[in-house]
Amino acid sequence: MSWDAWALLSILALCGAVIAWSCWGFYREREPRESHPLVLPLTGGGHIYIPRPTARLIPRHRISSVR
């Protein structure tokens, strides 16, 4: 094969990999996750456990008007 064909195949493979990776990411975002708590270490020793919400939160954005 000529180098043009190899270049075209590598571009197609790269595009396919990016599309597959993004689809997998969107699929994982939609799936409910287990609600393991977030563990934050403290500088003096110990940990803080923050429970994660079980329902998916919809972000609310405030639009500021310029006057």
What does this protein structure show overall?
This protein is of the alpha+beta class and 67 residues long. It is 42% helix and 12% strand. It is built from one helix and two strands; from the N terminus they run αββ. Strands 1-2 form a two-stranded antiparallel ribbon. The termini are far apart.
User: What series of H and E elements makes up the topology?
Assistant: HEE
Number of helices: 1
Q: Provide the β-strand percentage band.
A: 5-15%
| Termini separation | 63 Å
Largest sheet: 2 strands, antiparallel
Rg from alpha-carbon coordinates? 22 Å
Low-confidence stretches: none
Mean pLDDT: 81
Shape: elongated
| Strand neighbour order, sheet with most strands | 1-2
Question: Secondary-structure map with pairings?
Answer:
Layout: H1 3-30, E1 38-41, E2 47-50
Antiparallel strand pairs: 1-2
